[in-house]
């Protein structure tokens, strides 16, 4: 039975939700603009040597051979699936949101090794999520109501705008950090941000720190972590420590995890602390969507576990990684070699930039460096920064991330990734920067001579 | 600083975290607990509880495992597949692997007998259909808005569609008097009720084939529904996750088939949710899909899928498996046949003790009519009966009330999550129980007659 319906040429837009039509997904920022330019003209050593080199992607490609070597020595037996530890059927049916126990144990052990055994992790406090993206959003849903806020030190990972705010309705209040003290978080900056929220009648529910920092590539000092812990305790708010780059620290002894501080304090006030981790950066497996929340708060663990139903880790992936990460010979070797290679890359890029007359913030971890181009801005403003960024993107053909997209309060800083390419490609990129800076000097000299 | 009291601690978490939206306090879960504490095992625990509350498809694993053995390259962790490991592991584009999308689109078409084609570019990933259903809700409705949903319905929708989204669910009452069909009158009544309560209805959610009924919607009902949503200008979300479990006539009609032929339907209102958890039996792999005919929704959902992407390791496996036309063709038929056999078997055994089920031709369960075993047609009696079935008969059935069924006495009984032997034992237990219950009733009738005759004797 057909019912005649008037179909107008211009249909009123069928309502989608407010969340759907907002732009809080954040994809209109320059961070993503650069990606598009890269996608249209991607560098390839042989096929497109003049293309755009992607230096805006914090990926770890320096240690894949170690994983491939492990796989060659321990291939998945096609006859039994997963080295015979469980059948395909059991694996395919396993949807328990607690996650595979063997996998959680392996993750706990891996995290302990990364921290030089200076902290212990209980596998039963691990809640698995589809990537750190899901973990950060999930925690926000649990810790804050719509309209509440999380404090986040700047500069910060642009994806937080989406992950913490989009579907949750929670706000971000920036904690401003600047170059005068190497962008470290200070108690004054924390208080200022908190008071700003108060003045706007916004309830602050927590502080989210990323340690090692993205985009800075620096580590938070122990004393600062203690100040942070004191601050959140005093204000009775949560502390989320996103430690997804913890395995990418160049020297293990320098990194202090919030877990170590809590252990040394015998877990006093620990129930307000939650750690986010993932294998996307340290193991270079972003496609596998392996994230987790580690919480010292029982209620958060229980609730997060229930909520993880919306974003569980594939049991196939859990099964594979449980095997690989339980092999402590492999993990210890991987962690060591990965560190060494990242440090080598870091030193290579720092040296190359220095030769080109460019300084960077001293970093001790991560897959990128924080480059200072402020002396070279036409104007010390956001526009000046974006102008320079555009030149670098379109003339030098390098996709780097402008500090403004990370909410850096000082113009002229850029995040430059160095681990998502071969050494040869990095050399090409450094040469291009070098030539660009040389040309600028020449242009300026010629300009001055008039 | 002293330690915070638990009350203080509670205030430290959000409303969403501390409400009961997770739904785990429902009696639905009590049956699971009873099973977990005393699970049946053929040799180790033959008197344990048999799980019949889990809608899993375990009937075709031998078939699938055989394919796995013959196709080691489908896994990137084998010698044959390792050259794809790196590219797969670093691929995190939320569009998904093109081969994956193409294979899923092709599979969806095959399951519908090639009567419709699906566009791989409209396929968006979700964290299982759990994630996909929540995601589509986030895209279409604001907190406080409502979806209409025919009851009885899958209990976890209360969590999936409402918990974090703040959206309401308003039931469309379906009754056994017409085999729980969705009628125009019921749709209109539910909509009207919402209007009167000043609730903004944003969409209608249907599950076809139905969980828990196991029935499919006929063409007329689908057309009624399409007319209804067009007229009210609300969205239609069709959860078709049991599409390949249709095991006998009439054949399945997807919403995709209805709208392809219908120019009067606004395609921007139509969205399909799918998954491989039921049709293939892969709930652990978290392969959820949103397929929308609305470009804006595809775009938005794709961005949102960042929160629940499918592991590329799994995308790679699924792409390989679903593009094996020969295997899939055989699988769809074999799956259907094995489900049909199970269903016939159950109906036959239940007939022996005069227990009926709603006539169905799909799903991994049957909708069993135990109304005559109730002392009274009330919810309390349904709970009493259910308690007996779990504790005495040691079968975990799911009571109709947990599916928001308004008529007491119906139970969903899963039949595809066990082997033939276990099924036999379960049916025998049920038959014994039904016979015992009849004897008890007949016994008490005799007692009453005896009392009456002695009373007469006394009086006269």
Automatic annotation (TrEMBL), chain A:
<keyword id="KW-0663">Pyridoxal phosphate</keyword>
<dbReference type="GO" id="GO:0030170">
    <property type="term" value="F:pyridoxal phosphate binding"/>
</dbReference>
<feature type="domain" description="Aminotransferase class I/classII large">
    <location>
        <begin position="53"/>
        <end position="433"/>
    </location>
</feature>
<comment type="similarity">
    <text>Belongs to the class-I pyridoxal-phosphate-dependent aminotransferase family.</text>
</comment>
<dbReference type="InterPro" id="IPR004838">
    <property type="entry name" value="NHTrfase_class1_PyrdxlP-BS"/>
</dbReference>
<dbReference type="InterPro" id="IPR015424">
    <property type="entry name" value="PyrdxlP-dep_Trfase"/>
</dbReference>
<dbReference type="InterPro" id="IPR050478">
    <property type="entry name" value="Ethylene_sulfur-biosynth"/>
</dbReference>
<dbReference type="InterPro" id="IPR015422">
    <property type="entry name" value="PyrdxlP-dep_Trfase_small"/>
</dbReference>
<dbReference type="InterPro" id="IPR004839">
    <property type="entry name" value="Aminotransferase_I/II_large"/>
</dbReference>
<dbReference type="Pfam" id="PF00155">
    <property type="entry name" value="Aminotran_1_2"/>
</dbReference>
<protein>
    <recommendedName>
        <fullName>Aminotransferase class I/classII large domain-containing protein</fullName>
    </recommendedName>
</protein>
<dbReference type="InterPro" id="IPR015421">
    <property type="entry name" value="PyrdxlP-dep_Trfase_major"/>
</dbReference>
<dbReference type="GO" id="GO:0006520">
    <property type="term" value="P:amino acid metabolic process"/>
</dbReference>
<dbReference type="GO" id="GO:0008483">
    <property type="term" value="F:transaminase activity"/>
</dbReference>
TrEMBL record, chain B:
<dbReference type="InterPro" id="IPR004839">
    <property type="entry name" value="Aminotransferase_I/II_large"/>
</dbReference>
<dbReference type="InterPro" id="IPR015422">
    <property type="entry name" value="PyrdxlP-dep_Trfase_small"/>
</dbReference>
<comment type="pathway">
    <text>Alkene biosynthesis; ethylene biosynthesis via S-adenosyl-L-methionine; ethylene from S-adenosyl-L-methionine: step 1/2.</text>
</comment>
<protein>
    <recommendedName>
        <fullName>1-aminocyclopropane-1-carboxylate synthase</fullName>
        <ecNumber>4.4.1.14</ecNumber>
    </recommendedName>
</protein>
<dbReference type="Pfam" id="PF00155">
    <property type="entry name" value="Aminotran_1_2"/>
</dbReference>
<dbReference type="GO" id="GO:0008483">
    <property type="term" value="F:transaminase activity"/>
</dbReference>
<dbReference type="InterPro" id="IPR015424">
    <property type="entry name" value="PyrdxlP-dep_Trfase"/>
</dbReference>
<dbReference type="InterPro" id="IPR004838">
    <property type="entry name" value="NHTrfase_class1_PyrdxlP-BS"/>
</dbReference>
<keyword id="KW-0456">Lyase</keyword>
<comment type="similarity">
    <text>Belongs to the class-I pyridoxal-phosphate-dependent aminotransferase family.</text>
</comment>
<feature type="domain" description="Aminotransferase class I/classII large">
    <location>
        <begin position="50"/>
        <end position="430"/>
    </location>
</feature>
<dbReference type="InterPro" id="IPR050478">
    <property type="entry name" value="Ethylene_sulfur-biosynth"/>
</dbReference>
<keyword id="KW-0663">Pyridoxal phosphate</keyword>
<dbReference type="GO" id="GO:0016847">
    <property type="term" value="F:1-aminocyclopropane-1-carboxylate synthase activity"/>
</dbReference>
<dbReference type="InterPro" id="IPR015421">
    <property type="entry name" value="PyrdxlP-dep_Trfase_major"/>
</dbReference>
<dbReference type="GO" id="GO:0009693">
    <property type="term" value="P:ethylene biosynthetic process"/>
</dbReference>
<dbReference type="GO" id="GO:0030170">
    <property type="term" value="F:pyridoxal phosphate binding"/>
</dbReference>
<keyword id="KW-0949">S-adenosyl-L-methionine</keyword>
<keyword id="KW-0266">Ethylene biosynthesis</keyword>
């Amino acid at each position: 039975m057909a019912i005649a319906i008037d179909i107008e040429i211009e249909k009123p837009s069928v309502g989608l939700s407010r969340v759907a039509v907002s732009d809080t997904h954040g994809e209109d920022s320059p961070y993503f603009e650069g990606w598009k330019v890269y996608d249209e003209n991607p560098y390839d050593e042989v096929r497109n040597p003049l293309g755009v080199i992607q230096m805006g992607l914090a990926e770890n490609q320096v240690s894949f051979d170690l994983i491939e070597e492990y796989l060659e020595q321990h291939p998945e037996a096609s006859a039994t699936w997963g080295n015979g530890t469980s059948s395909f059927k059991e694996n395919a049916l396993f949807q328990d949101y607690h996650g595979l126990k063997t996998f959680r144990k392996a993750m706990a052990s891996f995290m302990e090794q990364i921290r030089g055994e200076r902290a212990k992790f209980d596998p039963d406090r691990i809640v698995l999520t589809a990537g750190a993206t899901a973990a950060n959003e999930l925690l926000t849903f649990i810790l804050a109501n719509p309209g509440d806020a999380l404090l986040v030190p700047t500069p910060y990972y642009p994806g937080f705008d989406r992950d913490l705010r989009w579907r949750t309705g929670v706000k971000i209040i920036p904690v401003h950090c600047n170059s005068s003290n190497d962008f470290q978080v200070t108690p004054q900056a924390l208080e200022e941000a908190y008071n700003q929220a108060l003045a706007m009648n916004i309830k602050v529910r927590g502080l989210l720190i990323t340690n090692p920092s993205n985009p800075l590539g620096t580590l938070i000092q122990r004393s600062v972590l203690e100040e942070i812990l004191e601050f959140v305790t005093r204000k009775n708010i949560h502390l989320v420590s996103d430690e997804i780059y913890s395995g990418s620290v160049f020297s293990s002894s320098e990194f202090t995890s919030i877990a170590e501080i809590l252990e040394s304090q015998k877990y006093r006030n620990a129930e307000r602390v939650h750690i986010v981790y993932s294998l996307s950066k340290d193991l270079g497996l972003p496609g596998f969507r392996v994230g987790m929340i580690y919480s010292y708060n029982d209620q958060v663990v229980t609730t997060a576990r229930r909520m993880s139903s919306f974003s569980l880790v594939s049991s196939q992936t859990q099964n594979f990684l449980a095997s690989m990460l339980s092999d402590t010979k492999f993990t210890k070797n991987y962690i060591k070699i990965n560190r060494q290679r990242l440090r080598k890359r870091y030193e290579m890029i720092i040296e190359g930039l220095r030769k080109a007359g460019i300084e960077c913030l001293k970093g001790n971890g991560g897959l990128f460096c924080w480059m200072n181009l402020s002396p070279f801005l036409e104007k010390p403003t956001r526009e000046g920064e974006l102008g320079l960024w555009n030149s670098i993107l379109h003339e030098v053909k390098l996709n780097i991330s402008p500090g403004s997209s990370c909410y850096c309060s000082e113009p002229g800083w850029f995040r430059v990734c160095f681990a998502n390419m071969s050494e040869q490609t990095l050399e090409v990129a450094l040469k291009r920067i070098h030539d660009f800076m040389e040309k600028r000097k020449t242009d300026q000299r010629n300009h001055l001579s008039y | 600083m002293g330690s915070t009291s638990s009350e203080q601690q509670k205030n430290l978490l959000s409303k969403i975290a501390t409400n009961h939206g997770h739904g785990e306090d429902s009696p639905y879960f009590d049956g699971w607990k009873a099973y977990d504490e005393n699970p049946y095992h053929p040799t180790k625990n033959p008197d344990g509880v048999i799980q019949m509350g889990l809608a899993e498809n375990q009937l075709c694993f031998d078939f699938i495992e055989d394919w796995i053995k013959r196709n080691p390259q489908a896994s990137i962790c084998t010698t044959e597949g390792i050259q794809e490991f790196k590219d797969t592991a670093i691929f995190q584009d939320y569009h998904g692997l093109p081969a994956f999308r193409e294979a899923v689109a092709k599979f969806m078409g095959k399951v519908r007998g090639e009567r419709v084609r699906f566009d791989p570019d409209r396929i968006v990933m979700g964290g299982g259909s759990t994630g996909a259903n929540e995601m589509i809700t986030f895209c279409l409705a604001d907190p406080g808005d409502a979806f209409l949903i025919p009851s009885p319905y899958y209990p976890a929708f209360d969590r999936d569609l409402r918990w974090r989204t703040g959206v309401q669910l308003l039931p469309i009452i379906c009754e056994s008097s017409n085999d729980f069909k969705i009628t125009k009158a019921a749709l209109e009544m539910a909509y009207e009720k919402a209007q009167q309560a000043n609730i903004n209805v944003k969409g209608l959610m249907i599950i076809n084939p139905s969980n828990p009924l196991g029935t499919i919607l006929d063409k007329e009902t689908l057309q009624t529904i399409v007319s209804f949503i067009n007229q009210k200008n609300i969205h239609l979300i069709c959860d078709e996750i049991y599409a390949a479990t249709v095991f006998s006539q009439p054949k399945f009609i997807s919403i995709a088939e209805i709208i392809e032929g219908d120019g009067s339907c606004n395609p921007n209102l139509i969205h399909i949710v799918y998954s491989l958890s039921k049709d293939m039996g892969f709930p652990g792999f978290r392969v959820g899909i949103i397929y929308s005919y609305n470009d804006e929704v595809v775009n938005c959902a794709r961005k949102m899928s960042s929160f629940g992407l499918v592991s590329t390791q799994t995308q790679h496996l699924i792409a390989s498996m679903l593009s094996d036309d020969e295997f899939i063709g055989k699988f769809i038929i074999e799956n259907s046949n094995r489900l049909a056999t199970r269903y016939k078997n159950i109906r036959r055994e239940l007939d022996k003790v005069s227990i009926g089920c709603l006539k169905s031709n799909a799903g991994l369960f049957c909708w069993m009519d135990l109304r005559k075993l109730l002392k009274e047609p009330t919810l309390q009696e349904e709970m009493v009966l259910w308690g007996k079935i779990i504790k005495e008969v040691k079968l975990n059935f799911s009571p109709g009330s947990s599916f928001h069924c308004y008529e007491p006495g119906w139970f969903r009984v899963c039949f595809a999550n066990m082997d033939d032997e276990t099924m036999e034992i379960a049916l025998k237990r049920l038959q014994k129980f039904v016979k015992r219950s009849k004897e008890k009733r007949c016994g008490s009738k005799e007692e009453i007659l005896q009392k009456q005759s002695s009373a007469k004797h006394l009086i006269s």
